[in-house]
Each structure stands twice: as structure tokens, then as C-alpha cells.
Design a protein that fits this description.
This protein has about 550 residues and is α/β, with parallel strands linked by helices. The chain has two domains: about 130 residues, Immunoglobulin-like (Sandwich), CATH 2.60.40; about 325 residues, Glycosidases (TIM Barrel, Alpha-Beta Barrel), CATH 3.20.20.80. The chain is about 25% helix and about 20% strand. It has 15 helices and 25 strands. The protein has an eight-stranded parallel beta barrel with strand order 13-14-18-19-20-21-22-23. Strand 9 and strand 10 form a beta hairpin. The longest helix has 22 residues. The protein is globular, with a radius of gyration of 25 Å.
Length: about 550
């Protein structure tokens, strides 16, 4: 760390100017804000401070995984004389290291006790991260616009294009990208003065899917995952230190806890975001990044061992914030999402394995604001209450009461309504919501395929008419052998194949899906009316 006297420039400004700066950074004309605010520009970190004490103040820098209790031994990067309102400007880069990810703590030195004259650092507030960025992003291409909300988790690229898909989602296991051998023939990325390499074969596989999908005009979403690889050296870096080997799906929470894990996570996301944001899209374009999967059932889908909601939220918030910064360095318009499933006011499992989505959203949002709010969004999964019963219109636990146990397609309008609350707005606007994974089982009955297709008709009709939801990404393209007996696909799978999802034939839902966002939708959907038990589609219009 460079000497503070050499790197810091402390600027005292008139009260009126400082008030305008703080107000601008807070995105509001209300300048009566007491907590520090942190802005980053191309080469500076700017910290606006409101000091009601008579003491001079210092600023310490912490790594993202450090707790405020570690401020005592953290590097002091700035020191000020007394002043009520002022800004502190420091270089964004400490040599090759980017401070964009760092936390900053403003503190005063106080006497340890009446009997001990030694000084200790007392924070005047919590840890604050960069919350306003100006000139950070390398690329500024507008977010793509598409004609409808119809989406699919894509297995077969050509078929998705033929179906007229507008939103495509793909899984991206970051662990499989990492090349610890540092093979110089593999693509590389330099971050903080260190070079990282990524496996060419894995990247080519991604390119072969992402490029034709985005070239066809689709909004492409990647779901960032962290699977146990079986390589001890790689797993030690990438898997969360508290990951349990008993995790049902071998999916870990991301390791942003250790210095090495943090480095590789940052490098991987920066590399991926840059690769798929480049002008003219030589590898394709990705604009949505979902961090993990269904984290309100974290034991199953984002494992860090047994954890309370508060413990998991603190860990996940750090990771989502880091991901947002890494993505923002590449693109000013790409979006980052948290992932939750349909348990809204109830939990799926024990308190150590799961929690309710609503409680988590409120806690996550409040915690994010305390450390510096940022542009996180929501990827939600409103599956039917019983995954084996596609008749979601009959869901008993999906009500229009604020205390509804679940949010499914039956009461989906509750979700964007909740996100219009002042406490959840970002820069006075609702956050983006996408439905990134949900589907309908095919009952093993003579009318099973018709019922599955009718459920899609019901869901798509509603989603298309609910403002505040950007997309409805169906899961899945082809039935899968290893999905607990569920058959959610547009295609049946080949039961004789050793492949878990080799397509064998189109189901009834296939043509319904294809025509869902066309002028022929009403004719294609007509069969579903008696199955749902209605005479006119207006009967299921979203409730105000």
C-alpha cells in the first residue's frame, strides 16, 4: 500500500457545494444524508463525508470479505483535519490494483479508556462501497429491445431460433472455465497485475451457443453457477469454505471469502462480461447475469453449509455486489440479478437450509443500502405450488393477501407490486424482474400434454399483461432424465438413449409456445379455455 501522504488529496469545499455533491451522489434533492457516500470515476475514488464530531477523521480500506472489526489493522489511506462536510479524493488504482471493489471505513481516533491513553479507531459508520460510477464502463451499447416476453432455457440453438424465442437463458459454470495450469494457448485476462487463463474449449462451447442466439436478436441471460468439479486444487479455490460435501446437487455458494477465491471470481466475471459485451459481438452478447440459483433454498442450490438467513445474506450480498462491479466495468447497461424461487412467506426446509423470499428481499435490500446501494435486480421462479401438478390456477397457497405463502403464476402480479415499494426502489425506479426458470410437468395421463400446454397458455397470457416483468423464460427445452421424474420440456426425450435429454418428439406445448407471441395466439390457445375452466381470457386478467 502506498504511503497515505503521497496518494491522498483532501479537498475542503464550501458547505453548499458539498451538499450538492452528496445530493447528486444520493440521486436525490434531499441532501440531509449523514452516511458517507462513495463514487468512482475513471481514475479516482471520491468519498463524501458528513462529520458531526469535533474530531479529525481517517479513512481505512478493507477487502470485500473483511469485517468492520478489522479496521484497527487496516491501511489508513486518508486523514483529514476537522470539517463538517467535505470530500476525500484518492487514486482509484494502487499500482495495478483496482480499489473499485474495496470497502471504506471513516473513523476517528479515541482514547481507549479513562485509564488508557492509547488511541483506537472508532468507526463513525459502517463499511461503505462504491455506489456511484462515472466513466467506469468500457462499453456503452444500449440494452437490446425485443418484441415480446417469450423465453426459453435453450438446449438446441437452431430450434430456439425456429421457435421465435426472444429471451434465451444458459447455465455458465465458472469453475469449468478456470485453467489453473495457465496454458498460454488459452485466452487470458489481466486483473490487478495478475494474468488468469480460461479454457478455450469451454469458451468455444459458450460462443457456439451465445453468438447465434444474440445474433438472432435474443436477449441472452447467463446463470452463473459454481459446481463441485472433483479437482481438489480447483475446488479449494472456487468452492465456498463452508461448502458441505453433503450438498444434494453439488452446487456451492461462490467463494468470495478467501483472497484467492475472491481473485478468481472477480477475474472470471470480468473476463466473461468483457468477452460478451464487445462491439460487433465477435463472441455474441450477454446482457443479463444471474448470481447463483434459488438462493432461498441455499442448501440445495447455493450451498455454504448450515446457515441462517442473516449469514447467507451477508455472504451473498458481498458476491452480488462484486459481480455487479465486475459486469459494470465491461458494460454500462448489462444487468445483475439475485435468484429466488416461489416460497414467499414460508420456507422450503429447515431454517438452516432455507428461508422465505420476502423476508430475504427486505433484509438484503436494507443491508445493501447500508453499505451503498447498487443496481441489483430479481430473477424469480414462480413454479406451481406442486411441481407435479401443472394446474397452477388451482394453487391454494398462492393468494392475493400480503401474507401469501407462495407467489406462483396464479398471483404473480403480487411480485412487481411488492417491488414498487419505496424501500426497494433504485434511483426512484422499480428494479427489473425476469422469470428466469419455471415450467410445467406433463402428467402421465391421456390428456397430460394438453394440461401442460394449457398451463403455459394460462401463464403466458398473464405474464404478457403484467407490467414490471421483462421476460418469461420457460424451463425446459427437452425433458430431462435427472429431474426427479418431472417432464417439463417442449420435447419428449428419447427413453432409449444414454443421453439424459436427447430429443425424441415434439409435445403439444411446442406449437402453442411457438405461436404464443404471434397474432395467431388466440387460435392456438383456444383449446386451453375449458381445461382452465374459463370462457374468456379476460377472466384471468391480472388483478389491479
Amino acid at each position: 500500500m502506498s504511503n497515505a501522504a503521497n496518494i491522498v488529496q483532501v479537498i475542503y469545499v464550501a458547505v453548499g457545494l458539498t451538499l450538492r455533491l452528496v445530493g447528486f451522489m444520493a440521486g436525490t434533492t434531499d441532501t440531509a444524508t449523514d452516511q458517507p457516500h462513495v463514487m468512482a470515476t475513471t481514475n479516482q475514488i471520491i468519498i463524501a463525508v458528513h462529520n458531526e464530531t469535533a474530531a479529525s477523521l481517517g479513512v481505512a480500506e478493507l477487502a470485500p470479505y473483511q469485517a468492520i472489526e478489522e479496521v484497527a489493522n487496516a491501511p489508513e489511506i486518508a486523514h483529514t483535519k476537522r470539517g463538517r462536510r467535505f470530500t476525500i479524493i484518492i487514486p482509484r488504482f494502487d499500482g495495478p490494483r483496482d480499489r473499485l471493489y474495496s470497502g471504506f471505513v471513516v473513523f476517528k481516533n479515541v482514547q481507549r479508556s479513562a485509564f488508557d491513553t492509547n488511541l483506537v479507531r472508532m468507526p463513525i459508520d459502517g463499511i461503505h462501497f462504491v455506489e456511484y460510477m462515472r466513466g467506469i464502463s468500457k462499453y456503452n451499447e444500449p440494452f437490446p429491445r425485443v418484441a415480446s416476453k417469450k423465453g426459453l432455457q435453450v438446449q438446441m440453438v437452431d430450434d430456439a431460433i425456429a421457435l421465435g424465442v426472444k429471451h434465451a437463458a444458459l447455465n455458465l459454470d465458472l469453475t469449468r472455465l478456470i485453467d489453473l495450469s495457465n496454458d498460454t494457448n488459452n485466452p487470458s485476462w489481466q486483473m490487478d497485475g495478475v494474468i488468469y487463463h480460461f479454457k478455450r474449449g469451454q469458451l468455444q462451447n459458450l460462443d457456439d451457443r451465445i453468438k447465434p442466439l444474440s445474433d438472432a436478436g435474443m436477449v441472452v441471460t447467463v446463470i452463473l453457477l459454481d459446481y463441485q468439479s472433483g479437482n481438489p486444487a480447483l475446488d479449494r479455490i472456487m468452492l465456498h469454505p463452508d461448502f458441505s460435501r453433503d450438498a444434494p446437487h453439488h452446487l456451492s455458494a461462490f467463494n468470495t471469502v478467501t483472497p484467492e477465491g475472491l481473485r478468481y471470481f472477480k477475474a472470471a466475471v470480468e473476463f466473461v462480461a468483457d468477452r460478451y459485451s464487445q462491439p460487433k459481438h465477435p463472441h455474441g452478447r450477454v446482457v443479463n447475469f444471474i448470481v447463483g440459483n434459488e438462493v432461498n433454498t441455499h442448501w440445495y442450490w447455493a450451498n455454504l453449509g448450515n446457515a441462517t438467513m442473516e449469514k447467507f445474506a451477508a455472504d451473498y450480498l458481498r458476491t452480488v455486489r462484486i459481480c455487479d462491479i465486475a459486469v459494470r466495468k465491461a458494460s454500462s447497461t448489462a444487468r445483475v440479478y439475485i435468484s429466488l424461487e416461489h416460497h414467499w412467506n414460508i420456507r422450503f426446509d429447515t431454517p438452516e437450509h432455507s428461508f422465505a423470499a420476502r423476508e430475504f428481499i427486505d433484509y438484503f435490500s436494507k443491508s445493501a443500502q447500508a453499505g451503498g446501494d447498487f443496481d441489483w435486480n430479481l430473477a424469480f421462479h414462480p413454479y406451481p405450488e406442486d411441481l407435479r401438478n401443472p394446474r397452477t390456477w388451482n394453487d391454494k397457497t398462492a393468494t392475493f393477501d400480503p401474507d401469501t405463502p407462495r407467489i406462483t403464476f396464479k398471483n404473480l402480479e403480487m411480485l412487481p407490486r411488492y417491488f414498487k415499494r419505496k424501500e426497494l426502489l433504485y434511483h426512484r425506479k422499480p428494479r427489473h424482474i425476469i422469470l428466469s426458470e419455471q415450467g410445467f410437468d406433463t402428467p402421465q395421463t391421456p390428456d397430460g400434454e394438453l394440461v401442460q400446454a394449457a398451463a403455459y397458455c394460462y401463464a403466458y397470457y398473464k405474464v404478457a399483461r403484467i407490467p414490471g416483468i421483462d421476460s418469461f423464460i420457460l424451463h425446459r427445452h427437452v425433458d430431462h432424465r435427472d429431474e426427479d421424474g418431472l417432464n417439463l420440456g417442449l420435447w419428449r426425450r428419447n427413453l432409449k438413449s444414454t443421453s439424459p435429454s436427447e430429443p425424441a418428439g415434439k409435445k403439444y406445448i411446442y406449437e402453442v409456445f411457438r405461436q404464443a407471441d404471434t397474432p395467431q395466439w388466440r387460435k392456438a390457445f383456444a383449446f386451453a379455455l375449458p381445461i382452465i375452466g374459463i370462457h374468456d381470457w379476460k377472466e384471468i386478467n391480472p388483478k389491479n
